[in-house]
Design goal:
The chain has 249 residues and is mostly beta strands. The protein has four helices and 15 strands. The strands form five sheets. Strands 1-2-3-4 form a four-stranded mixed β-sheet, with no helix packed on it.
Length: 249
């Protein structure tokens, strides 16, 4: 939609757009504002073990977040933010792991081809720990800030790869992007992958310079690679393993 919005005839009669499957960036909604000027946007949250929309948030035009909030638990679901180790509930503004409590979850976790029942069961339903990181906003809604595996240490600094991805997506003509940690230990580096501009127009040095004006030095990608399109896994998310394999090939 974003790629064709500038050339397409506006859908002025479109009333609702529902989003799900990844972090929803306000910049993307801004790109579509002229294409669907009267549409209200609804962000839905769920994961494999919560096949329904476990949370919902209606976008009201506030673009001050790095991503649109995922909101409150929908009917029959409770959205929690807990300490990733103790699983104790956290307070407003404290970053932790997002958990979903409901009687409408899947049968459990899949490990080595076997289904393992949830270990946290109670009268209010089973609790599934998603691996997503988030925090409570003052109104009780939840803001997702990334994945557990999106947080890495670079030269002693803790880096949220989601923030680097957001900076890449803010560059003109970039249709899609992702920042990954490559290497191990002291050799860990950030590599950015971008799709959108024609390869002939892609200037890695210019893009790194632009990011350096926005990000701290330790968050600027060591390298930025152009790809025709980001590879996707069967569930529609970016296939990170395929990108790393392509980098190492």
């Amino acid at each position: 939609l974003a790629a064709e919005a500038a050339r397409a005839q506006p859908l002025t009669a479109l009333r609702r757009m529902f989003w799900g499957g990844d972090m929803l960036r306000p910049a993307l909604l801004a790109q579509l504002a002229g294409f669907a000027p009267n549409a209200r946007h609804v962000n839905l949250y769920g994961c494999t073990e919560t096949p329904q929309a476990a949370a919902v948030w209606r976008f009201d035009g506030d673009a001050n977040w790095s991503a649109a909030p995922i909101g409150l638990g929908s009917d029959g679901f409770q959205l929690l933010v807990v300490d990733p180790v103790t699983k104790a509930p956290l307070g407003i503004g404290e970053t932790g792991e997002i958990a979903v409590r409901s009687n409408f979850l899947s049968l459990g976790y899949v490990e080595a081809g076997r289904i393992l029942a949830p270990t946290d069961r109670g009268a209010d339903g089973d609790t599934y720990y998603t691996g997503d990181r988030g925090l409570y906003l003052p109104d009780g809604a939840v803001l997702m800030v990334g994945r557990d595996d999106d947080q890495v240490k670079i030269r002693g600094h803790r880096v949220e790869l989601a923030e680097v991805t957001a900076a890449l997506l803010a560059r003109p003509q970039v249709r899609s992007a992702v920042a990954l940690a490559t290497g191990e230990g002291a050799q860990t580096r950030i590599t950015g992958f971008v799709a959108g501009p024609r390869q002939a127009a892609f200037d890695e040095a210019e893009m790194r310079e632009a990011l350096a004006a926005r990000l701290p030095d330790h968050m600027v990608p060591h390298a930025i690679r152009w790809v025709e399109a980001l590879p996707l896994s069967p569930n529609g998310k970016v296939d990170r393993h395929a990108l790393v394999a392509e980098l190492e090939a």
